[in-house]
Specification:
This protein is an alpha+beta fold. Helices cover 41% and strands 25% of the residues. Strands 3-4-5-2-1-6 form a six-stranded antiparallel beta sheet.
């Protein structure tokens, strides 16, 4: 059996220089699971991925073949993450209301919202 090779964070950062462009062209979907208090952000179509820690309570999902970031998961989303992050509250204001109402698989259609999400994710991955 072949040993599992750990993901190289520097390589992932290098390969994902275009994440903002991919969000603009492939789209982005927000899916909040209230039972788990988990927000999943999916770039493009949902696909098989490996989940790796990025920051406290934030993990990124990586395609194991291409090392492209295909999404992000945020645990304790409403109970901790949103409460601690004023910028996130402002950025996701309209979407937070939809999530609280139980709407699932929210497609982010506004160009300005996609652009902001791309910038936030780009800055997060380059830390």
């Amino acid at each position: 059996m072949e040993a599992v090779k750990p993901l190289d964070a520097e390589e992932i950062n290098r390969i994902n220089f275009d994440i903002s462009d991919r969000i603009m062209t492939e789209g982005v979907t927000l899916d909040y699971n209230p039972e788990a208090d988990l927000l999943t952000i999916t770039i493009g179509e949902s696909r098989h991925a490996i989940t790796e820690p990025l920051l406290d309570d934030v993990m990124y999902r990586v395609d194991p073949d291409t090392l492209k970031i295909v999404g992000v998961e945020i645990v304790a989303f409403f109970s901790d993450f949103v409460r601690r992050n004023k910028v996130v509250r402002k950025l996701l204001k309209g979407y937070l209301e939809m999530m609280r109402e139980g709407k699932r698989d929210i497609i982010v259609t506004e160009t300005k919202d996609r652009k902001i999400l791309g910038e936030v994710l780009t800055s997060s991955f380059s830390t």
